[in-house]
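Researcher: I need the complex structure. Ligand is zinc ion. Inputs:
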Amino acid sequence: MTIGYRMRHDESTNREVGRTVIATQLGQQPADLTDVRATNLAVVLGYVRGHAPCSRADIAAATGLNKATVSSLVGELIGRRLLRETGQTERRIGRPATMIVLDGSPYAAIGLSLGPDELHLLAVDLSGQQLLSWHRAVRGGAPSSVLAAVAAQVKRAQTRVHDEGRTVLGVTVGLPGLVDAAGAVRVAANLGWRDVAVRDMLRRTLGDPAYPVVVENDANLAVLAERRYGPYAGVQNLVYLTGGPGIAAGIIAGGQLIRGGLGYAGEIGHVPVDPAGPECACGRRGCLDACASVGALLRRLGRSPGDDRSPGDDLAPDVDDVIRRARTQEPAVLAALRDVGRHLGHAASLLANILNPEVVILGGHYVRLAPWLLPAAQAELADRALAPDTGGLRLVASALGTDAAAAGAAAHVLDSVDTGQLPLAASS
Ligand SMILES: [Zn+2]
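Model: Output:
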């Protein structure tokens, strides 16, 4: 894992005092008056996350909350072991002030991304320090057996963090497909799944745990990771394109994750880009997925699905092979990479014309292929985007590598704490 897990301050968690709406990363939710204290606790936590070490007086001055309220809120957060006092004091006129920092060491957030060939589990503490990072091959098969393998990894991680005296804050699982509000997968073409009650099955297998279990589209989680970590952290209009067996978009517009009416937004992989193109896993012809996904690139260059490899195999060795052949200037490989780049530029132009994003990030296996993809992609984007200078859009490769979805899954658990769903005091 190459990314640093130090949290950055996220402006979207910095709410104005006295607002009756909690702006969360997943949209706006009405809050009744009983939530005001939870909101204020989250405001204090969010401020300390961005500005630690800081004093109670700093928190009061920045948030507009009065000093007695801040003292009470800080006391509660210390009681829940989310904050702690340091020995440091700040020299000021009058009494020295005790400094406050994030604690959160008694907690662990577990994030997991599941693909057709691999699962990746990450655990981080509340300050974002990485505790565990496991990659496991997945053998495919029926959803029940794949989810049993997922649950086994979660249980193993839970045992590990419990043994270290930590409480699990939550588990978020990302996968490539349409995920509804109940955490069920409606369609996941590249997993071959349809109507699978993923969250219910996982909860049951995990023995109905006290912590929340959330299932989310992996592109949505990857874009949350990009918004939280790395060079595009804090960008308010950001799109992430997954570079795996299929292609989907995670979209943040105006600082908010765009999920759409039922949670199905971002399936750019099934936008037609070439009427004469290859048949797609969805049954249609010429989808972006069939023309420009990493899976499609590998098929074009000689890997046929289910032919030379079992479904449990990783794409990485084949991507290595493509890179080796590109470096030797093999004409068929260079032409295939140019075509994929051109289709990605076309996709970026659709995003530019509809959403005017500041950054479109090529993720997953596209990252290592980017030196060959980006020139054609940028030329196509410039040709097709209506706005001058592509509306300010930068088309770039991710700095988070292939781990963005798992990092985003763990970040999703931390986001829920930052937006007011505080854990009970750590019991162990
Ligand atoms: Zn399709």
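Model: Summary of the prediction. Residues 270, 280, 282, 284, 287, 289 surround zinc ion (CB under 6 Å).
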